[in-house]
Amino acid sequence: MSDLKTQFDEAVNYIQNAEGDFQPSNEMKLEFYALYKQATEGDVSGKRPGMMDFVARAKFDAWDKLKGTPSEEAMQHYIDKLNALK
């Protein structure tokens, strides 16, 4: 687990500090966001944001799709998705 956590932390750092040629699309950012939240906080909770709050609603919906995914699996998907882009 600690090796996976280290790889995950490195992948998160890479995404957060992305510069130059690596500019993920908004859809891809949303996927990374959802995987990060599932890996670090678990299943989404709370109310779904209102329909006029487009960004928060999109984030909530993306995260909600991962409900039930174990933290380690979400970390691995995050790492795999980044590696596929490199």
List the helices and strands and how they pair.
Blueprint: H1 2-16, H2 26-41, H3 54-64, H4 71-85
Helix pairs in contact: 1-4, 2-3, 2-4
Structure report:
With about 90 residues, the chain is mostly helical. The chain has one domain: Acyl-CoA Binding Protein.
The dominant shape is flat
Strand content: under 5%
The average pLDDT is 93
Secondary structure class reads mainly alpha
Describe the structure concisely.
With 86 residues, the protein is mostly helical. The chain has 4 helices and no strands.
What would the keywords be for this entry?
86 residues, Acyl-CoA Binding Protein, 4 helices, mainly alpha
